[in-house]
Amino acid sequence: MAMPPSHSSALAGASSSPSASSSCSSSSSSGAAVIGLIRDRDSSSSALDHQQSKRRQPPAPAIDEDDAPSARIPAAAAAAAAAPAKDSLAYAEILLSRSKFADAQLLYKSVLEAEPSCVQALVSKGVCLQMQGNARQALECFASALKLDPSNARALTQCGILYKEEGHLLEASEAYQKALQADPKYKPALESLAVVLTDIGTSLKLSGNVHDGMQKYFEALRADATYAPAFYNLGVVYSEMLQYDTALNCYEKAAAHRPMYAEAYCNMGVIYKNRGDLDAAIACYERCLAVSPNFEIAKNNMAIALTDLGTKVKLEGNIHQGVAYYKKALLYNWHYADAMYNLGVAYGEMLKFDMAVVMYELALHFNPQCAEACNNLGVIYKDRDNLDRAVECYQMALTIKPDFSQSLNNLGVVYTVQGKMDSASAMIEKAILANPSYAEAYNNLGVLHRDAGNIYLAIEAYERCLRIDSDSRNAGQNRLLAMNYIYEDEDKLYHAHRDWGKRFLRLYSPYTTWSNSKEPDRPLTIGYISPDYFTHSVSYFIEAPLMHHDYSNYRVVVYSAVVKADAKTQRFKDAVLKNGGMWKEVYGIDEKKVAALVREDNVDILVELTGHTANNKLGVMACRPAPLQATWIGYPNTTGLATIDYRFTDSLADPPDTRQRHVEELVRLPGCFLCYTPSAEAGPIVQAPALTNGFVTFGSFNNLAKITPRVVRVWARILCAVPTARLVVKCKPFCCDGIRDKFLAKFEELGVQPMRLDLLPLILLNHDHMQAYSFMDISLDTFPYAGTTTTCESLYMGIPCVTMAGKVHANNVGVTLLSQVGLCNLIARTEDEYVKKAVDLASDVSKLSALRTGLRDRMLKSQLCNGPSFVQGLEAAYRTLWQRYCQGIVPSLVRLRDDQADGTHSDNTNWVNGFKPTANGFGSAIISDTRTR
């Protein structure tokens, strides 16, 4: 019952952002924007506004002295004009201070008519003209004043302001410095000099002369030690020089001298954010927005910080708080694609896939270049079996980012699932070329080789993955599964599993005490955990326990990790609930949390049904949440986990003298360790095709990994011995011409013409799959990894199967299945015997036809399909194991106390009333769908 291998698809995940770049990848939040250098926008003030300067209202037109009608002089001003020059000057100064420039100008005119050498009037008149936009006449007034008083600080300062407004910064600086030579403490000159020196520094810095620019900022601060923009611009320069402590100090001083300095708070937030102090960054952005609520840069930076904080708390395990932060980020920037993207990641992890799809699509709407969102949409569609849509999404991602290794990998995964091996290989090789350290791509390459039947290449690829990432669970388990196909050395395979188990257990802290009552005969709680409660190979063997348990004495709790439920899932669930059991969905839930749930449910015996195949929950078993734990059905070997006490099997699959070693203690059920429930969609048995064809058709529907070179040689011998016979083989990769050609070539090299083989690809509908057995007269089993579900299916469709006994469980599953239906004569011990049995069976078509007609009834009447009887035996086994536990016999606790023990536990006792064992690998290798996080 081998399943397809495990691949790795990449899902884009939650992102933390770099400080100044926008990316929608594993760290997808855009970087916080830093506000750059600031120039003074208003030379008449020592305080600088932010980049978006507040422009003054357009100045009133200057009034020329000769054109000003006396009617414009208000009554009080007219009276002042008629008064002595001294009084007129005082009144004009009052008007100037109140910004009544035109009226003040008229008074200054009258003063100067009376006293042409009045320096104060000349300077003030120049100010009036300057404020009305008449720079030329203003400069003439200042020049006249300076002829009378060359050291007039006020006139020099106003000249400097005019020069600055015209962009003549050096001339302005010289004017301010002359003013200060005349009056070193003249505050307007000091403040204005600080402004112009800061602007000179900015010009130098922007031209690439950072050092001289900084010196000008320092000079500005020597002129005015409270000039906030100089501190601010120094902060910008130090930030660019990565001297963040000094930069932060400068921003803090800028904010101290100008408490409404929004830009300083904003850039402080950027520094804190880049340091990872998101709380401090958010506090700075809040202060910034309190000062300037519509400051878009700060709002965007706040959205970035909140998104990163959401990712941080999510990675710490608080996914709901993370979602809250992502949503809050969108309040500050409603079109922030990274927050939407990260919401999509979070919703995906919460299994809210519809909401995840909405968020990814919104992220793409606002950022069409977000390849990661395309990638993650593809993973969701792939998990929903919408493979065509998944391919579209991955291709869209690759249009945006041609070397996007995760999407290349994921596209290869879909092609592998579809059996398009050539296309899959091309994509995965491209993923590795784009990112040679991409461990999971090697894992998926291994799955690809495994599906193509190249087991040694598969193992090599898994090991390359493990060399890059020694903790790769997918590759580690896939490697173990693959080793079963080429079983060469019992000890080597055992130690590989045992070593894996030891490493894996380091990630968990197993429970060692339980509150379960040690009453040997009380009703027991049995837990079954599996991802395969749907139309899957394992489901045909777990159905009997779910349907036929004595629910009055055995409380059944099903932990379902099914990725995509189907009608069979619902039928199982309905039956369990109707009988009083419990059904709990655990797909996507952290395994440690699932273990805690098992413990809360007071499960007495927890049985896992997957082993090292796809979507397994061995992490739950590693936590040891139940007093007793067992493995059954899904895997043909030991799990290697010291926390699992027992493994169910039988005396034919694992004979008492077996040399195969197991960490678990073997529980041999009488009869067969499996109970098969046939598909209701199988349809009737048709007559043997040999009767109408005139030739016998051999066949196998096992996967290519099981059809080893040794198997091919034996099958070729059979075909050569029966020259008229044909061989039909069905497996997924045969939709690929390259795989078909290679397979046919193997037989041609052994003397079998390709025209004698019929190669069928995957058949999706179960009814059609079962009816495909009608092409077959005789089923040929594989070795050393025998079929399980395929053997049961062929028997149910009336087709006898020739199998090979061997040294290990995987090899002997066919032995126990055929023994149950009375076909022991078709069990071979050697290759020669296998060939002879197949040839002899093909030589008598009448006998073959008669066998076909009665085989289904024979099977249905056997213990292999007797659900109630099988479950009675299984329950008897559970009871015996529990009674042993009550006596203090707990195999796993012994192993956990002495992890150096070799783990060989083969208890050959057949427990009371025989149980029907487990075995065989339904091994889906673990595909690594890579989501971008």
Quick structural overview:
The protein has 933 residues and is an alpha/beta fold.
- Principal-axes geometry comes out as elongated
> Average pLDDT value?
87
CATH C-level of one domain: Alpha Beta
Q: From the coordinates shown, what is the CATH architecture of one domain?
A: 3-Layer(aba) Sandwich
Report the sheet-strand fraction: 5-15%
Task: Tell me how many strands there are.
Answer: 15
- Proportion of helical residues: 40-55%
Secondary structure class reads alpha/beta
- The oligomerization state is single chain
Spatial strand sequence of the major β-sheet: 4-3-2-5-6-7-8
CATH superfamily of one domain: Glycogen Phosphorylase B
Radius of gyration: 42 Å
User: What is the count of DSSP helices, taking H or I runs of 4+ residues?
Assistant: 39
Give an account of the 3D structure:
- The chain is built from 39 helices and 15 strands.
- With 933 residues, it is an alpha/beta fold.
- Among the domains are: 524-654 and 665-675 and 892-897, 3-Layer(aba) Sandwich (Rossmann fold); 689-865, Rossmann fold, CATH 3.40.50.2000.
- The strands form three sheets. The protein has a seven-stranded parallel β-sheet with strand order 4-3-2-5-6-7-8. A six-stranded parallel β-sheet has the order 11-10-9-12-13-14, with helices on both faces.
- Helix 10 runs antiparallel to helix 11.
- The two termini are 34 Å apart.
- Mean pLDDT is 87; it is low at 1-30, 39-73, 76-82 and 900-933.
